[in-house]
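Lecture notes, structural biology module. Today: joint structure prediction for complexes of two components.
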Amino acid sequence: MRWLRSFRRGRWDTERARELASYIEIETDDNIARGMSPDAARTAAFRKLGNLTRIREEVYEMNSLGFLETTWHDVRYGARLLRRNPGFAVVAVLSLALGIGDLAHRAMHAARAVQITARGRLHKLLIAAGLMCLTAVTGFRPVQPRYVISGRVEDPHHLRPANVMLMVGYERDGVGVSYPVTIAANGTFATNTLLPAKYVLTLVRDPYSTRRKSIPIGLTIAHVEDDDLTNVNVTIRPDVTVVGRFWIEPGTPWPSHIVVTSCLGEEGLRRAACQVAEGAPDAKFLLQNAFGPRILQVGWGAPAAQRHKKPKVLLDGKDVTGIPTDFSANPAADLQIVFSRAGTQ
Amino acid sequence: MEHGSLYPALHRLESRGWIQSYWGTSDNNRRARFYRLTRAGRGQVIQQTTRWDELVRAVERVIRPAASDPAE
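The predicted structure, tokenised, for the full assembly:
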């Protein structure tokens, strides 16, 4: 590896110098043995070897990386010049900073002009990384958040959502950025975005989930056609797809909490509903999502002494526990989740 | 030819891993640097020798075509 040798070239040079000195000594000895005077013998040895400095230079260059060294020398020379002329240095640095800032600003406007044709997550990441690098290197923020998306959460089913995730897209189905938004006590939320939105997709997060990425319980998509539209009002209207009820077998203690989740088929990737019910043994719950639930998962909590059996899922009286079922096909059906005490039939 | 021109060549061979050098003592009891072929170097010698032999044979066929021609 040539670049590794470049780091060790000083050692190589010393070694070569010792080797050449050794050659001179041996050759001088041989010449003296042939009857020459010591001075003449040494001179003859040097003559036979040739230009010592040139040999060492040639070996040194073989271990060098020309481009890097030239650049390094140029940088050092430039730094020395700037140190000697501080006034010139300040003007040069300011000019560069202004130039880079202006360039970045123009680039962002150009990006807006073409409405960012880049698609997919990679492009989104590249754009975000580029902006972050630019900000880190120059300390200049090329883009100030200037577009406001505000909304109000309508909560007819008292789901008490904790937060809203706004997916703001800059193309109809292309580049987008997520903005987590906290809902105020009066149900309103607001956020700033870097670019004008083409569409806004809202996910209302499950307030009871302890997962880092909590389960979305509502979803709406608002398409925005006007590029310069600000203060977009987004109203969360979760679609009620399934209404069900919990049934607690007589003598079974009420679980401390219940979470109902629906999944998309075998994937199980998009979980979409939850509800907590308390008190009455036939409390109703709402299963809400926009994906069409097919499998139900039920989680519950209870004190250690009051264990429950795995709850049954009954659809119109038929046991569908663990069976892929399209619950959304018949939202009026009688969906029951039945809890019974462990150890009972 | 100056003996010094040998050293850059030796360095090049060593950096390619074809020879290996070490310090030792010469016949007249002087400290000297010795070079020996590595396994890769030996393979390289065989390869280069073979190529040289092929070249010599090719040149020979060109400059002496009539000597082996029975019709002449």
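Point to remember: The longest strand of chain A covers residues 240-248.
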